[in-house]
């Protein structure tokens, strides 16, 4: 479910606010962006990563596919939220075959669901020692509820895309970063801030070191703006993104946004400190990259940098990639950070 394979795929990131689609051609340093697009997801169609209105989502995805016209008809998507567990553990096996054969027994100690209800996989990090000093391995254990994975696969299948890979958001973002920047030897924080949740990851030399979902997202800001101004969610979303001419309302909105962003930055700092307290000093992150729709909020990079104390930038997954002539460059530069997960999925390949 999570392993690299050799056939190209279209990346489809199904979020609670938008569905994003990315199609690439080529590989390695010769990748080229061929198609991308996004479509708004009706409110409550996805809640906490779980599909609530499959027919509505299928119609939305079909319309997006029709609009983008990707050539590929095999796809990759990803899951996150409370139905997905990603945990770093040590196992007493020193090769992938033994890990795979015994994964179900190891998982029973860590997965808070009935083991029959989940799909299991793992990502090998490297060698480790057991408490008895024997050779073992450190892995990321991945467990995802079958009903959630199957619902995402069904969405793709019923929309005309063969579901070849269902990944995890945190791993997809890491793929996108490595595809754009190459392998970086320093530890890097990747923070994808979506509408209803965020994915926090730390990678080093192309390997994930830490990943978790966080209950922060741009929808919180939109809801608060709407309540403060007595307007609908959709109107509040426009004001949050584009601003408003009224100076008094603009000041109030700016304060709401700033207060939330500062809270987010403090939560991220806590996550980084937790990681550092359980890691080697050389693994301390040196920089932070923001992705997702809420990474486009004005001033967010400055606030994160001030609170956390490390260099913070927005991440453009297409920064070192050729683009199809039909893609509007100004539009792309304004939305690129929103497509990190979809790009990481499009980098994935299938047998």
Automatic annotation (TrEMBL):
<protein>
    <submittedName>
        <fullName>Type IV pilus biogenesis protein PilM</fullName>
    </submittedName>
</protein>
<dbReference type="InterPro" id="IPR050696">
    <property type="entry name" value="FtsA/MreB"/>
</dbReference>
<dbReference type="InterPro" id="IPR003494">
    <property type="entry name" value="SHS2_FtsA"/>
</dbReference>
<dbReference type="InterPro" id="IPR043129">
    <property type="entry name" value="ATPase_NBD"/>
</dbReference>
<feature type="domain" description="SHS2">
    <location>
        <begin position="9"/>
        <end position="177"/>
    </location>
</feature>
<dbReference type="Pfam" id="PF11104">
    <property type="entry name" value="PilM_2"/>
</dbReference>
<dbReference type="GO" id="GO:0051301">
    <property type="term" value="P:cell division"/>
</dbReference>
<dbReference type="InterPro" id="IPR005883">
    <property type="entry name" value="PilM"/>
</dbReference>
């Amino acid at each position: 479910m999570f392993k690299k394979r050799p056939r190209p795929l279209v990346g489809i990131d199904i979020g609670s606010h938008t569905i994003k689609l990315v199609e690439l051609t080529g590989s390695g340093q010769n990748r080229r962006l061929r198609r991308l697009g996004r479509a708004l997801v009706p409110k409550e169609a996805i809640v906490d990563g779980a599909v609530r209105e499959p027919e509505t989502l299928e119609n939305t995805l079909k319309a997006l596919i029709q609009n983008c016209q990707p050539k590929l008809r095999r796809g990759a998507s990803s899951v996150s939220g409370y139905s997905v567990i990603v945990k770093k553990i040590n196992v007493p096996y020193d090769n992938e075959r033994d890990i795979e054969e015994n994964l179900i027994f190891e998982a029973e100690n860590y997965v808070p669901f009935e083991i029959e209800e989940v799909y299991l996989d793992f990502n090998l990090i490297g060698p480790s020692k057991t408490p008895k000093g024997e050779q073992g391995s450190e892995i990321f254990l991945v467990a995802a509820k079958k009903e959630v994975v199957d619902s995402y696969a069904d969405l793709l299948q019923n929309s005309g895309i063969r579901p070849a890979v269902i990944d995890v958001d945190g791993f997809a973002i890491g793929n996108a970063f490595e595809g754009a920047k190459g392998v970086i030897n320093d530890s890097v924080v990747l923070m994808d801030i979506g509408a209803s949740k965020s994915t926090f990851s730390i990678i080093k030399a192309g390997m994930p070191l830490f990943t978790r979902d966080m209950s922060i997202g741009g929808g919180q800001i939109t809801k608060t703006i709407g309540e403060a101004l007595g307007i609908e969610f959709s109107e509040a979303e426009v004001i949050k993104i584009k601003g408003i001419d009224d100076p008094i309302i603009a000041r109030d909105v700016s304060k709401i946004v700033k207060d939330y962003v500062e809270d987010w930055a403090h939560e991220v700092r806590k996550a980084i400190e937790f990681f550092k307290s359980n890691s080697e000093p050389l693994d301390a992150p040196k920089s932070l990259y923001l992705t997702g729709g809420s990474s486009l909020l004005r001033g967010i990079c400055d606030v994160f940098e001030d609170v956390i104390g490390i260099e913070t930038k927005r991440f453009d997954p297409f920064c070192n990639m050729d683009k199809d002539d039909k893609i509007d460059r100004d539009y792309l530069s304004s939305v690129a950070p929103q497509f990190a997960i979809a790009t990481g999925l499009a980098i994935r390949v299938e047998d």
